[in-house]
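Renewal narrative, Specific Aim 1. Our central claim is that a sequence can be written position by position from structural information alone. The example that follows is taken directly from our test logs and has not been curated for this report. It begins with the structure tokens describing the chain, in the order in which they were read.
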């Protein structure tokens, strides 16, 4: 079932809330055709949207989010914005012509997704899958995901949320997004953090986060530059 917004009505649903992406400069192979004044744009930091996908009562997600955001904040190749799905109330009944209340909720998240160059999804694992709020966010949007890289930080019990990540790879592939191979996962997540939310032994997870962000940066720049010379038609 196609749950995306059809072209015929997309202008009434999303364009009022979702700005057009700002094109970056062309890649090296065609830079000679681009005015020299635009060259620095290709090296501009990527806009990274970090999606905290759990809206469950008593959730552990904010602890994971605080840890990850502190790592991402130290990088010069990203500017970071958190999208907390506990702050968005998108209905599960999808609509091609949502009313004012739904459009107001979309306005909280749609422009941020559209403006992002890359995504990191922070997800727990519920019953071998990922939260309904995350699937709902994905299904309400379409072009906002296209030709952008997605990284994953997962947490849970013995599996560390990896079963949720494997399912998300299939979903994001359908949305024309590119998921990076390297992930960060926390097995028995609650045991790794102290009462103040600090990781007790951060060396391994810090290294995993760096690798994932390095991969995300490579794909983010490559796809942004490619789209600047050849817009993606999904």
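The sequence written for that structure reads:
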């Amino acid at each position: 079932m196609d749950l995306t917004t059809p072209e015929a009505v997309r202008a009434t649903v999303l364009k009022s809330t979702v700005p057009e992406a700002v094109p970056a400069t062309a890649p090296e192979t065609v830079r000679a055709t681009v005015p020299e004044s635009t060259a620095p744009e290709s090296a501009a930091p990527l806009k990274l949207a970090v999606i905290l996908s759990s809206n469950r009562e008593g959730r552990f997600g904010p602890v994971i989010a605080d840890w990850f955001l502190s790592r991402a904040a130290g990088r010069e190749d990203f500017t970071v914005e958190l999208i907390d799905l506990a702050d968005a109330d998108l209905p599960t009944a999808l609509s091609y012509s949502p009313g004012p209340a739904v459009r107001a909720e979309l306005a909280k998240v749609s422009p941020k997704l559209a403006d992002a160059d890359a995504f990191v999804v922070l997800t727990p694992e519920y019953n071998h899958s990922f939260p309904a709020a995350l699937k709902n966010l994905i299904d309400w949007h379409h072009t906002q995901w296209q030709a952008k890289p997605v990284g994953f930080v997962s947490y849970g019990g013995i599996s560390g949320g990896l079963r949720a990540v494997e399912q998300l790879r299939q979903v994001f592939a359908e949305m024309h997004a590119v998921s990076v191979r390297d992930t960060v996962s926390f097995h028995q997540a609650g045991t790794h953090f102290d009462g103040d939310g600090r990781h007790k032994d951060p060396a391994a997870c810090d290294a995993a986060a760096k690798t994932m962000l390095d991969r995300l940066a490579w794909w983010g720049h490559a796809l942004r530059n490619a789209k600047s010379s050849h817009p993606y038609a999904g």
